[in-house]
Amino acid sequence: MRKIKFMKIHSKSFLGLIFRKNFLFPALIISLLLSFTVCGGEDENDKITDIIGTTGPGGGIIYHVEGNTYYEVSPIFPSDRWLNATNTVSKYRGGGYANWRLPTKNELNLVYANLHISGKKDLGDSWHWSSLVDKTGCNSYWALRFSDGKEGWFEDSNLFCLRTNHQFRAVRDFNP
Fold first, then answer.
1. Which among 43, 56, 159, 172 is least surrounded, fewest beta carbons within 10 Å?
2. What is the DSSP letter of 112?
3. pLDDT recorded at residue 171
4. Which strands make up the sheet holding 69-73, listed edge to edge?
5. Helices (H) and strands (E) in the chain, counts
6. What range does the domain containing 33 cover?
7. Do residue 164 and residue 134 come from a single domain?
8. What's the mean pLDDT in 102-114?
9. What's the CA gap between 63 and 70, in Å, rounded?
């Protein structure tokens, strides 16, 4: 007998079911209000997209935002060997901040993708050093070419290896 009643209730129109059952109507109203509250407003990705490409407090360009942490990249330094680049970056004080470093491979790829490829900033076409080191054989260091995104190992600081000069940039993270 219960199954028959249940089927009769569901055979009615949806609105009839809502108004017949006092508990369903308030639940529907609350559900609709919550969906408008959660879905409304500016999308978080829009805010992040607007921030990327702007100037950071260290005078660099913001290239990535992750949670409450922002990442900025410095203006370009002249071409140099990897070892000299690390020394230059360790002494760099853009905006008065001392936490600048050579970018990791991942950070360099983010700079390339979020600023160069996206068209937000023209960062040139040269090779850029990363902090990634492979110490097998000759000391090799990872670099990325901004003209086409090509990446690779380059050797430095060994008498038997070709000494390579690349441009470089420093990166740092901060919480606004």
1. 159
2. I
3. 96
4. 61-66, 69-73, 171-174
5. 6, 8
6. 2-39
7. yes
8. 95
9. 8
Q: Check whether residue 25 and residue 99 sit in a common domain.
A: no
Structure tokens at 101: 């470093």
Amino acid at position 167, single letter: Q
Helix (H, G, I), strand (E, B) or coil at 71: strand
Of 66, 40, 36, 37, nearest in space to 51 by CA: 66
- The CA distance from 161 to 70, in Å, is 37
**16: which 2 tokens?**
């009839």
pLDDT at 42: 52
Do 88 and 109 have their domain in common? yes
Q: What is the tens place of the pLDDT at every residue in 48-77?
A: 778 999 999 999 999 999 999 999 999 999
Indicate whether 34 and 107 sit together in one domain.
no
Tokens of residue 109, six digits: 């790829």
Pair 90, 167 in one domain: yes
Residue 20 predicted with pLDDT over 70: no
